[in-house]
Amino acid sequence: MTGTTLLEAAPSARPADEREHTEPSVLPIDILGHGVFSAAGHGTAPIAAALARPEPAAGAPGEDWPELAVRPVVDFDPQAVLGRKGLSRLSRTDQLVMAACTLATDGTVAGSTARTGIVLGTTVGSSGAQEVFFRDTFVQERPYLVNPSAFPGTLMNSAAGKTAIRLGFTGVNATVSGGPLAALHALRYARTALVNGHADRLLAGGVEELSTAAAWSWLQSGALRPESALGEGCGVFVLEREGTRGEGRSVLGQLLACESGHADPVVDGPLGVAARLAAVVRRALRRSGLPADEPVAVAPGAAARRGWSAVERRALREALGAVPAERTVRTDTALGETYGASVALQLAAVLGRWQAGQAAPGERAAVLTAVGPDGSVGAAVIARPDPR
Asked: 293 or 269, which is more confident?
């Protein structure tokens, strides 16, 4: 047998995510709109306000819920955005995503819908819909005596698919699972698709809903820090390649780079995961064309999780040095641990902070980071549209 083995073909003994890429350093993706629902309210401005004055988290919302502080989405009225028709057949995740995408595009999209699509990050989709459906298979007289119309809502890609049908998008449609890196993976997927010409416009982001099943699993695992709350939310952003936007459309920010990596938390240990995240952050900055000493804002994603918050802090110190408080954007204090939606809401917080004029002096960009319990790590770099 002829040919070259993978080992022989490798240009370096370093892991693949540490090697240099052939892609040009800076390929900006414009952020032109957003639809955001969180515990702070609707949009990015309430998040920016809530970060300065976080309210105490609410207690368990019902008798079936564990004693766990939660931060549900407030002032969410799907009927006001979507109308009444068919609303009862949508899961909460479906409703959040469909409403967010509708608001992000103002209900319409300029140009061809055949070149417009949706890329969504989530953990498992609607955990609430799955909980109800699978419980019925145990408690009904026969396992098959379940409501068949409820099954589509249990699928992970339900929200992206139903939203595309409603808005008439026939372009790229993808749902990416990845725990706390889900929304970051969605942004990276969307960026790659746009850079390579597979779409003209993509709505990308992440979603996570509160449910009793999820709340119990968080409590039993002990993964949350004692002072942290469990949250939910959805953030979707309209992305296009730089220079393709139409007249009269302003840029809210630019996605310069989106990188990910992995370290084995068992073999490499927490220090190994921190070192890999630091390397990913440095690579993202390098791919963005920003110097290593650039005074960036930092939006950490693991601050609410026991153990992983320390890993993330160590990685950021290693990669960026000491980041002052005025350039640190912690969303968990106001929004709770939103897991699959975390990076999307971190991005929403950064954009809201810039729009409110709260950027620190000299701050031209922000770094969003994420760490997963399996040792997966990621970082995205966002640039201000007008740093002057």
From this structure: 269
For CA atoms 27, 240, 334, 362, the dihedral sign is positive
Residue 107 lies in a domain: yes
Q: Which residue has the tokens 């160590």?
A: 314
Of 241, 270, 293, which residue sits at a domain end? 241
> Does 258 share its domain with 237?
no
**286: CATH:** 3.40.47.10
The end-to-end CA distance of the chain, in Å, is 61
User: What residues are paired with 36 via a beta bridge?
Assistant: 235
**How far out from the chain centre does Cα 40 lie?**
16
pLDDT of amino acid 5? 29
**CA separation for the pair 184, 339 (Å, rounded):** 11
Burial class (CB in 10 A: 0-12, 13-18, 19+), 63: exposed
The span from the CA of 383 to the CA of 264, in Å, is: 31
pLDDT above 90 for 25: no
Whole-number pLDDT of residue 244: 67
For residues 222-239, average pLDDT: 94
pTM given for the model: 0.89
Mean pLDDT, to the nearest integer, of 177-182?
A: 94
Same domain, 71 and 204: yes
- Residues 300 and 202 both lie in one domain: no
The answer to whether residue 248 sits within a structural domain is: no
Lowest mean pLDDT of 30-34, 239-243, 340-344, name the range: 239-243
Percent of the chain with pLDDT over 70: 89
**For the residues of 75-137, what is the DSSP string, one character each?**
S--HHHHH-STTGGGS-HHHHHHHHHHHHHTTT--SS-GGGEEEEEEESSS-HHHHHHHHHHH
Mean pLDDT (the chain) is: 87
Place of tokens 């290593």: 292
Examine residue 6 and state whether it is found in any structural domain, yes or no.
no
Residue 272 backbone phi and psi in degrees, to 5: -65, -40
**Selection from 241, 193, 192, 226 nearest residue 32 by Cα:** 241
- The C-alpha atoms of residue 35 and residue 58 are separated, in whole angstroms, by 24
